[in-house]
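Continuing from the previous page of notes. For each protein in this section, the sequence appears first, followed by its structure tokens. Read the first protein now.
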Amino acid sequence: MPALSFLWERKDTPGLDACRLELSSTGARLRGNAVFLHEGLPAALNYDVTMDTDGATQSATIEGFIGDNAVSHTIRRAASGWMHNGKPVPSCRGLDSLDLSFTPATNFCQFHALKNAGAETTEIVSAWFDLSTQTLKPLPQNFTRIGETSFQYAAPSQGYEDVLEFDTGGMIARYPGLWDRAA
């Protein structure tokens, strides 16, 4: 299957994110690089996320830097639950999708969960990598379908609500106030 590439422009701070989506008979892989200002410091983060054929995240790696500090994280979903840098994260047990806070690319995981759910309104709780704390924790997200690829979205714990627009393949096209796909 062919690979697709995407470029997003960050709207709330200077930044870009380039991502490559590789689809195969065993699932999908997202590989990208986000370069932006994080809390006033230059940040460059490479990410590599794998998913199974149902869109459930299997693993992720994050490598790079924020300011003078190196960043290195390994996240994986095991039979016993999520592991972050080799340590279990009990609060994320039973969650299928991973959401990396610094890239719109991982919304691909939530789109496929929405497609599989088939409901007009769906709550998805993702294992969320919070870059500010560099921890993995649950993130409740509410999606209400308002079009074929548009959803009224809310992440109450983050104080964010707006309409997310995806393309027909499930990749984010517009994340108001945060990311827009470059032409």
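Done with the first. The second protein uses the same format. Note its length before scrolling.
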Amino acid sequence: MAPGIYGTESADFDELFFFQYRFSKSVFSYETAASLLGVSDKIINRMDVTVSEKYNFGNRLPNINIHYVKKEWLNLGVTSRKTVFGNPVRVYSYERTLCDVILNRDKVDPETYVKLIRGYSSYMERNLKELQEIANKMGVLQKITDIMEIAYE
């Protein structure tokens, strides 16, 4: 199944869980985070993961979008969600995901970008204080404020 993980041939292969087991310092982000948070129904063809800027995966990984951030940003907004197989994985909160997509708009599908911004107002677990804190630490507080005001007018 994966190095250090064993199972029967009929066992389910939880790609997200095994990836994070192997690369424990990674955090699921962007579209993968949106999917795990239940705010996107888009079928994920490539996993989005974020690691600190000096992290080295060794070999090139297929079907993985790797996003590198400053070490001090890596754990901002980290939460836990369960995969479809019920295994816990580290994932960014909606608030952190918003900051990432606004900061890196050119790396995000335009439809996903708009859906995430518009969907935040109806997200049941939204935390405006956390959004403000993360945005401030990442230097996008003014952008977040401007964009969110326009989205809700």
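What the second structure shows: The chain has a mean pLDDT of 88. Residues 15-151 form one domain. We return to this in next week's lecture.
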